[in-house]
Write the structure tokens for this entry.
Amino acid sequence: MKHLSYAILILASVLLLAACSPMSGRKDDQKDPLPGDGILDDSTLGDRDGDGHVEDDGTSGSMNAGSDEKEDTGAFTAVEKVKDADDAVNFIGANVYSLCRDSLPVMTRTRVLSNDDMDALTYSTELEDTDGISDVIVSESALSDGSFSVVMLRTDGTNTESLARRLAEGIDPEKWDHASAGKAAAITLDDDIVLVMGDDRQVDDVIRAVTTAAADVYDKIGEVRVVLG
């Protein structure tokens, strides 16, 4: 009888310890509690405080944050005169592109090149020097397989015609790795030069938009010269 009492006491102790154990009733595949409904997916990644909501760190939805480059025509403001590089960027991005959006690439990138960066200048213009050039503005397809380019040279007026000829003669329609342009046309606007390169429809529509927009901005608009295609 005494041995039976000891056995009952030991069995009761074992059952009590099992009931109090933190692993009691836990399945091998059960996961630790997670925010919200306890499922780890994209909706809970970034939930730093565990309240079931993903905090916005200010970077979601942004593109090229901190970049000086402008993308999409909505980033530009129309100008009445082109007096500096910023005006030239806005002239292309707003005055011109607003008239030919259906012919533009899905995304464009417009920027002012540094006159000290001859590698970038030569790649975009094929010019070897910046004599007489105040600013170089380039607007191209932001996608790697694009073959669209607008180059605008702001000059000091001393050799505008010579620069226009050199720009037209030196263009490289195959400068892109995966595409090539089929047509190019150039025009002078006062002392500025604009060259458009792309497929036939793009060049025709964009150069037409340039001449239309320039009528309200420039005093003297030159003849359109087709230099390729």
